[in-house]
């Protein structure tokens, strides 16, 4: 379980332009689930997830995660162990790429946590295969590949560490729609088969609807709500009041309901909607 308790974070607290990015956040993130963190630009999403492996430390309040407590004003012990348990992929993947070859870059994390050279390379190869980068990429520079490939390499570097919690800040940035769906499908597989807790910051509500178990909505550094994903997108007034676009399937169901055609609540895909329509023509 991940628990934020009255957690606030202020940028430049002693300066005239100080900014409160998180304001007394109370939030539980359920272990073993896929949780999406959504909200407008500047709502505090990236600031929130950077607390999860202590890249940022709270100005006030506490964070409890995997048996560790991070408390404002107190030194956090065993940071290295915490960061092995919680892997964070940044929004800008080039921040995480620095070795001369991709295979060395992906193997760096496991080696840094005490894994042997041989095992680190095996983990790196397995992780690169998972993200769709074949052996032809191993000896290439991570800075001499496309944006989407950099994103895949950065994610592989986190997967190679084998964390229990995987945090992804805009994981589909730079990927085409097919690549984005494949990438999120990978994390859904890791969640279902390997019981990884997945936390995703994203603006792509199609991905949220299709893959997330829970949704947390932030606005102005505050938690507006935490709900089951399909329940969240059924809250029409809430979505409109926060200018949140509805996934295609939700929009189509609303159009049909507005015309007096009642659609079962358990229809969540376009294929299921098409089948329902055929059966009731």
Quick tags:
single chain; 281 residues; alpha/beta; Rossmann fold; 6-stranded mixed sheet; 4-stranded antiparallel sheet; 38% helix
Explain what you see.
With 281 residues, this protein is α/β, with parallel strands linked by helices. It has one domain (2-246): Rossmann fold (3-Layer(aba) Sandwich), CATH 3.40.50.300. Helix content is 38%, strand content 22%. The protein is built from eleven helices and ten strands. It has helices spanning 45-49, 79-85, 102-112, 117-130, 147-159, 177-194, 205-211, 229-232, 236-241, 248-258, 270-279; strands at residues 2-11, 19-29, 34-38, 60-65, 68-71, 86-89, 165-169, 197-201, 214-219, 222-228. It has a six-stranded mixed sheet with strand order 6-7-8-3-9-10. A four-stranded antiparallel sheet has the order 2-1-4-5, with no helix packed on it. The radius of gyration is 20 Å and the shape is globular. The N and C termini lie far apart (47 Å). The mean pLDDT is 91.
Write the layout of secondary structure elements.
Blueprint: E1 2-11, E2 19-29, E3 34-38, H1 45-49, E4 60-65, E5 68-71, H2 79-85, E6 86-89, H3 102-112, H4 117-130, H5 147-159, E7 165-169, H6 177-194, E8 197-201, H7 205-211, E9 214-219, E10 222-228, H8 229-232, H9 236-241, H10 248-258, H11 270-279
Parallel strand pairs: 3-8, 3-9, 6-7, 7-8
Antiparallel strand pairs: 1-2, 1-4, 4-5, 9-10
Helix pairs in contact: 3-4, 3-5, 4-5
Q: Which spans have pLDDT < 50 for at least 5 consecutive residues? A: none
The CATH first-level class comes to Alpha Beta
The structural class is: alpha/beta
The average pLDDT score comes to: 91
Count of distinct structural domains:
1
Largest sheet features: 6 strands, mixed
* SS elements, strand count: 10
What is the succession of H and E elements?
EEEHEEHEHHHEHEHEEHHHH
State Rg: 20 Å
Count of helical stretches = 11
| N-C termini distance | 47 Å
CATH-defined superfamily = P-loop containing nucleotide triphosphate hydrolases
What gross morphology would you assign? globular
User: What proportion strand?
Assistant: 15-25%
Predict the CATH topology.
Rossmann fold
Helix residue percentage:
25-40%
